Amino acid sequence: MRSFERLAARWVVIALVVYVMSSTAGRVAHAQPCPTAPTPTASTTNCGGVVVSWTQNPQASSYDVIRMGPDGTIVIAMFVSGPTYLDATAQIGFTYKYQLAARRTSTLECPLGIGSPGAFSNDGFRAGTPGQPALSVLSTTCLIQLMVQSGAHTNSVTVLRSTSPLFTDPTVVGTVGLGSNVSTPMFDLNIQMGVTYYYRAVATGVCGDGPVSATVSTTPTAVVLTEVPLVEAEAGSECGTIRFSWSPVAGATQYFWAVLLFSEIESSGSTTGTELVYTPPDGGPRRLRVVGAGTCGNSPLGQSVLVSASVPPGAVVAGAPESVSVDSGGTAVLSAELTNLPSAQWVRWEKDGVPLNDSWRVQGTSTGELTIQHATVQDAGDYRLVVQTGCGQGASTKAVLAVRPSCAGDYDGSGTIDLADLLAFLQPWLSGLGQNCP
After folding, report:
1. pLDDT at 9 (0 to 100)
2. Among 315, 321, 361, 374, which is most exposed with the fewest C-beta within 10 angstroms?
3. How many CB atoms lie within 10 A of CB 214?
4. DSSP states of 49-106 as a string?
5. Alpha-carbon distance 247 to 302, whole Å?
């Protein structure tokens, strides 16, 4: 009997074990895997901490945030619903990585209620207020060269300049883009020799401006010429000249100039003054180019507008008229070449000092070419071309017009023999009657 009881008890135990195992196996077979943890992204420009953000997994009910940094790998938050978390405990100036572990409410679907951590994020960084930049002077020979040193958390550095040690009138020299703890040179060209300048720098970053640097000062011994000489031109007070003048360039010890005829250099030279009086050979228009020169090189180029000289009268008449001899009744032509005619106020021909006017026989009395048709001996004489310009009145050399009688009886050269010819003969004959000819 006792052996039967022992056998029955053994079967009961076996039956219970089988039931428990079958029941557990059924539950395990219906369990769901833990949700996959997304890979987060960490910010690098936030001033209040590092913002950790991720894309939600709909299978997860919450997340644990894990941080890896200088203090090791630790869980910094649990049961975060997401999709962002601000790590305000991250220290400024340190780099951190983050990972997530996803949770589910039902432990039957996810053993222990949380899955394994996912992949780490990018490097996260908590931005801070820019550190104080530093300035130093490298050179003052021909310009002021500064060295700019940025501090931490810097995006750019702006350098200010003043002529007052109290910095009451600051102007911006320039801004350079700099990262944290970077050095770069900066040049100040717009300066004057002998003036003391004071400089400060301020850094700008994501979290605002940082403290201003200490003030440095320096006095340049020479300057780069940055001013452009402003050139003006006008007809000179002396006829035939052009007066060029230009504004002085600070730091220039002399000026190099070139007079241009169209685009070609006609004349060039140098001067220590700021004025040049030039006489064009033909009295025509010219322009001037000028640069200032100093210890540290030349200034930018200054160029004047096109200007014409006030032309003297003699410069208008380029060729003297030639003497002419014609038969009576013929056509006589006297000509003189004119240049710079727009500068002439008027021109006219004179015979024996008497101005001529156009008639049916005479044309061109106010041009460079005079034409006399049906010439007579009364037309013979001295002719010249008179010119009036803004510089006064001038005249060409004289040309002689000789008129030969066309036949023996035509004493007046009219081309016909008539009573006038007899009177022209008798007048000198009667006045000389009774006189001995040599």
Report:
1. 39
2. 361
3. 13
4. SEEEE-PPPTT-SEEEEEEEETTEEEEEEEEE--SEEEETTSPTT-EEEEEEEEE-S-
5. 10
For residue 108, the Cα-to-chain-centroid distance in whole angstroms is: 75
CATH 3.40.50.2300 fits 134-218, yes or no: no
CB 96 within 8 A of CB 89: no
How many Å apart are CA 2 and CA 136, to the nearest integer?
Answer: 105
Do the domains 53-125 and 231-303 sit in the same CATH topology, yes or no? Answer: yes
Q: How many residues does the chain have?
A: 438
Q: Which positions ≥6 away from 118 have C-beta within 8 Å? A: 36, 37, 38, 39, 99, 100, 101, 102
Q: What share of the chain is helix, strand, coil (3-state, %, to 5)?
A: 10, 40, 45
Q: Is the CATH code 3.30.1490.20 the one for domain 231-303?
A: no
124-125/134-139 β-pairing: unpaired
Answer whether 0.90 is exceeded by the pTM.
Answer: no
> What are the per-10-residue average pLDDT scores of the chain (438 residues)?
41 33 39 84 93 94 95 95 94 93 78 88 93 92 91 94 94 92 91 90 93 94 88 89 94 94 94 94 87 92 91 83 90 90 87 94 94 90 92 90 76 68 71 68
Sign of torsion, CA 324 328 330 333? positive
Residue ranges of domains in the chain: 53-125, 134-218, 231-303, 313-404
CA torsion 320-325-327-329 (nearest 10°) is 20
CATH of 313-404 among 2.60.40.10, 1.20.1250.20, 3.40.50.1100, 3.40.50.150: 2.60.40.10
Structure tokens at 388: 């009036």
- Confidence (pLDDT) at 410: 67
